[in-house]
Amino acid sequence: MKDKVKFLDEAKAGIVTVExxxxxxxxxxxxxxxxxxxxxxxxxxxxxxxxxxxxHFAVWCIDRGAWRSFRVNTVEQWYKGMPQQG
Length: 86
Hints:
Layout: H1 4-13, E1 15-21, E2 28-34, E3 56-61, E4 66-71, E5 75-80
Antiparallel strand pairs: 1-2, 1-5, 2-3, 3-4
């Protein structure tokens, strides 16, 4: 995953979509997520911080309404906003 610092900054500011391969099935998961307290409905605490050098990130998953995590080495791409329609 490139630009981990930028990813964390964008997730704190709003919604980002992460496209990654699931570890067990290799299935592509397209996950809209956030680290923004307001967007998450207060689920992300203000003191929640993650280190950019971590090998995985925890995020509030918008389409599941729950915390999810992913390994950064499985990310194919990420971008600001909700999933792009292809």
